[in-house]
Specification:
Elements: H1 9-20, H2 23-30, H3 34-48, E1 53-56, E2 59-62, H4 64-89, E3 98-103, H5 112-122, E4 127-132, H6 138-144, E5 149-152, E6 161-169, E7 171-175, H7 188-193, E8 195-199, H8 208-215, E9 221-226, H9 229-237, E10 242-246, H10 247-253, E11 260-263, E12 271-278, H11 285-297
Parallel strand pairs: 3-4, 3-5, 8-9, 8-10
Antiparallel strand pairs: 1-2, 5-12, 6-12, 7-10, 7-11
Helix pairs in contact: 1-2, 1-3, 1-4, 2-3, 9-10
């Protein structure tokens, strides 16, 4: 007998009749009508090929087959109820939940140490995996549960994908301290004349700063593409190349290198980062903990003011 073909609600009716000893008291316990309980019993009798209960006066007496399965059915239903109750309560001290967040490689350093520290304090048995974000599969992965959440720039996604603004950082340009051309200030003409590093995990395409330049009718010469801000900072310190990145990541990646940090020499919107999740986990306590923790370690809580156009 295939479990997938069985309506488990029938066993809830079975257990109620077994405990209450009749159709009418079972219907009161289940908040169903007596005909609905009788109909469910008929279906279960046909499924198990056994009468299960025989009427003697006002009582329904279980058959040997019913007595044989009653203990297992009762324990199974109670175990399922307890499991669902534990899941809905979510005890962080006991949870062994595995969280998976999709994020760009270059953004891990900006929040991973703080998130792991918090997780070790509040959910010590949980595990965490940060994986590469695949934008073409993002909605499907969030819907299926392959991902608990994702962090990225503003993306055009369906209403089923919720989002919360995390932070915004202006663009910053890095140049080595003894750069022959850049000495504490940077003009747009100089910026466009020099060669650049683009930090990206994609094989092709422009960066956020290139889009900003393109809107103004400019383009720059990209000499090197790499995936990590820290690697770009090291390369800048040993060459005349420039690299552009959000200010927060520039400060973190540059801490051990000491390059010059200069304002982006053109008009550009700060880079806005968002946390994404699917509507089907909006009420899940474990998912709520993860979202709250990410939002707080990334610099804001869920009650902070959001830029216009963001969605919960």
């Amino acid at each position: 007998m295939q479990l997938s073909r069985i309506d488990l609600n029938l066993f809830t009716v079975f257990e109620a009749i077994y405990r209450e000893g009749g159709i009418t008291p079972a219907s009161r316990r289940l908040h169903l009508s007596p005909p609905a309980v009788s109909h469910a019993l008929a279906r279960l009798r046909e499924l198990l090929q056994d009468p299960l209960f025989e009427r003697q006066g006002n009582r329904m007496i279980p058959t040997p087959r019913a007595r044989a399965i009653a203990l297992t059915v009762g324990e199974s239903l109670r175990g399922l109820a307890q499991m669902l109750d534990r899941a809905s309560q979510f005890d962080p001290a006991l949870s062994s939940r595995s969280f998976v967040i999709a994020v760009r490689d270059s953004h891990e350093i900006s929040f991973l140490p703080q998130l792991l520290r918090r997780m070790n304090q509040e959910i010590p048995q949980a595990t965490l995996a940060l994986v590469r974000i695949e934008r073409g599969e993002l909605e499907e992965d969030l819907q299926s549960g392959a991902l608990d959440a994702a962090i990225d720039v503003a993306l055009p996604l369906s209403p089923e994908i919720r989002r919360e603004h995390l932070n915004s950082h202006p663009l910053t340009v890095l140049a080595r301290t003894d750069h022959p051309t850049v000495r504490g200030a940077l003009e747009l003409t100089t910026y466009l004349e020099l060669e650049h590093i683009l930090v990206t995990g994609r094989r092709h395409g422009a960066g956020y700063e290139d889009v900003a330049l393109g809107r103004l009718g400019f383009s720059r010469n990209i000499k090197v593409r790499c995936q990590q801000h820290a690697a770009a900072c090291q390369l800048v310190s040993q060459s005349d190349l420039l690299v552009t990145m959000p200010q927060h990541q520039a400060e973190l990646a540059n801490a051990q290198v000491g390059n010059q940090l200069l304002p982006f020499p053109a008009e550009a919107e700060p880079m806005h980062m968002y946390l994404y999740w699917h509507a089907n986990v909006a009420g899940d306590p474990a998912s709520q903990w993860l979202r709250r923790a990410v939002m707080e370690v990334c610099g804001r809580g869920s009650l902070a003011k959001r830029p216009a156009g963001t969605k919960r």
